[in-house]
Amino acid sequence: MKIGITCYPTYGGSGIVATELGKELADRGHEIHFISYALPMRLNQVMANIHFHEVEVPAYPLFDHPPYTLVLATKMAEVAVSQSLDLLHCHYAIPHSVSAFLAKSMIAPRKLPVVTTLHGTDITLVGSDRSYLPITRFSIDQSDGVTAVSHYLKQATLNEIGSRSEIEVIYNFVNCDKYKPSENKELKHHFAPAGEKILIHISNFRPVKRTTDVVDIFGRVQQKVPSVLLMVGDGPERSNAEWCAQNNGLDRKIFFLGKQEFIEDLIGISDLLLLPSDTESFGLVALEAMACEVPVVASNVGGLPEVITDGIEGFLVEPRNTAAMADQAIIILADDAKRLEMGKRAREKAHAFFCSTRIIARYEEFYRKVINQR
Ligand code: GMT
């Protein structure tokens, strides 16, 4: 198949899922055309079947806010025709599905089936804002196929957005050959020279990720278990988190590493992942940790209970209860046998339910269904 994929190219789950999906599909012989304003972050290798079409947004003094939605629609239509796309797959509803609807209308009667994958904040935070809600609902309902990354998100879309679409749940996936336990002794020694336990948090440091809670949890943990914390990623909350670390005398034990490309190397040397978000439609990073045999302490919100079973692959705790999260982290870190057992169970689960071979086949099947229904 010839598939166009539009996503945010930045450090965020939806862009990562879209890019990894494109790479997996290209590996299976499909021709993939990424359409976005910059090269997606994980598109870090040249692959024969992958093409990138940059959307350039011309500046004009009249525009305080250049109309990206329109130039994206124009590029989508152009690529669909010039490359004879079979289907256009939008990741994150706003504004991608709106642009796709315009592109489809522009090139009619030529057909361009559009699939929208809902990722989370496009429904739970941004999409449910009154200023976006009607157009979010409209663009979802105009899509020829809609998927959501968890049952939780599907229900939120039906209940909070009032969509009438049939929504297929296709979970996020992880490549278990790439994300696997690793023993990079040199890297481990660099961060934990005295054999301290390594905790890790990876996110885009948005308020929803509660990065200051991560610092607070770590502060409690390191009083009981010798440990260090890796803070990976960047975003608006980073300076608050850094301030918290300094203010609590933790700055020598917390490493703010900024955006990193090869996070599997960092997860691979870690003993525990912290994900205390206020909401999380899936929690891709938790799955990536699980595949590396790293247990997770996370909030019991959104789609996280569909990924992590409390007490088996980690622990789920009510959001913002940093004391309880720290207690659960200590239970895992103070008992190596328990930690290793949870890690093993975590990889087994990632492999059995979320590995890329299983999930990519679901997308291929869904594409065929959408194309044929037209
Ligand atoms: O979590 C973010 O802030 C990024 C956001 C995105 O769309 O880039 O992530 C969402 O999509 C991910 C991939 O499907 C999910 O794993 C995340 O749980 C989801 N984030 C939230 O729901 C907060």
Structure explained in plain terms:
α8 packs parallel to α9 and α8 packs across α13. This protein is an alpha/beta fold. 44% of the residues lie in helices and 17% in strands. The strands form 2 sheets. A 7-stranded parallel β-sheet has the order 3-2-1-4-5-6-7, sandwiched between helices. The protein has 2 domains: 191 residues, Rossmann fold, CATH 3.40.50; 169 residues, Rossmann fold (3-Layer(aba) Sandwich), CATH 3.40.50.2000. The model has no long low-confidence stretch (mean pLDDT 95). Bound molecules: ligand GMT. Ligand GMT binds next to α1.
The CATH superfamily of the largest domain is known as Glycogen Phosphorylase B
Mean pLDDT: 95
Strand order of the largest sheet: 3-2-1-4-5-6-7
**In CATH, what is the class of the largest domain?**
Alpha Beta
Q: What's the helical proportion of residues?
A: 40-55%
| CATH architecture field of the largest domain | 3-Layer(aba) Sandwich
The fraction of residues assigned to DSSP E strands is 15-25%
* Unreliable segments of 5+ consecutive residues: none
Examine the coordinates and then state which fold CATH places here, giving the name of the CATH topology of the largest domain: Rossmann fold
| Number of helices, where a helix is a run of at least 4 consecutive DSSP H or I residues | 15
Total beta strand runs: 13
Number of domains: 2
State Rg: 21 Å
Order of helices and strands: EHEEHEHEHHEHEHEHEHEHEHEHEHHH
Can you describe this structure in just a few lines?
With 374 residues, this protein is α/β, with parallel strands linked by helices.
